[in-house]
Amino acid sequence: MDARLNYFASPNPSKALKYFMSAGKALKESPLPAATQELVALRVSQINGCAVCIDMHTKEAAAAGEAPVRLNLVAAWREATVFTEAERVALELAEQGTRVADAAGGVSDEVWARAAEHYDEEQLTALVILVSFMNTANRLNIITQQPAGDYEVGQFH
Predict the structure, then answer these.
(1) Could you tell me the pTM of the whole model?
(2) What is the pLDDT of residues 38-55, one digit of tens each?
(3) Is 30 helix (H, G, I), strand (E, B) or coil?
(4) CATH number of the domain located at residue range(s) 33-143 in this protein
(5) In this predicted model, what pLDDT tens digit does every residue of 80-135 receive, in sequence order?
(6) Residue extents of the structural domains in the chain
(7) Helices 34-48 & 51-63, crossing angle to 10 degrees?
(8) Which pairs from 136-141 meet CB under 8 Å and 24+ separation?
């Protein structure tokens, strides 16, 4: 399968995408725990059906030492016992922030309040930006049918 577009083939789109990807790099340096970042990125990508991001974040998380059982259970996190309360609320916020059309109201006050119990303002800001970033990245990949399966850990670092 070939992608519909090569974002890096033209100077202006390439420049814009480099700025976009630098935002993703900055998120990696945020105080939001790295495991939470990968779990959230993976869950948002699962919801959106972005195979290339699922491939990337599964491999990055595994390389960082994430347990396979946790990666395998992200899609069913509500029934899984392997996530902390903080991770669970981050995943719920990510789902509500991704399914804004379905949820109509976006992230509920209840979920926001629970998230604020586990994350400080800087971490919450990073979480919100991460959910938004991943939704954008997913759409860029899905619209152009970017192929998945051959991502190598660290490829974009």
Answers:
(1) 0.92
(2) 999 999 999 999 999 999
(3) coil
(4) 1.20.1290.10
(5) 999 999 999 999 999 999 998 886 789 999 999 999 999 999 999 999 999 999 99
(6) 33-143
(7) 160
(8) 136/20, 137/20, 137/24, 137/50, 137/53, 138/44, 138/45, 138/48, 138/49, 138/50, 138/53, 139/48, 140/7, 140/17, 141/50, 141/51, 141/52, 141/53
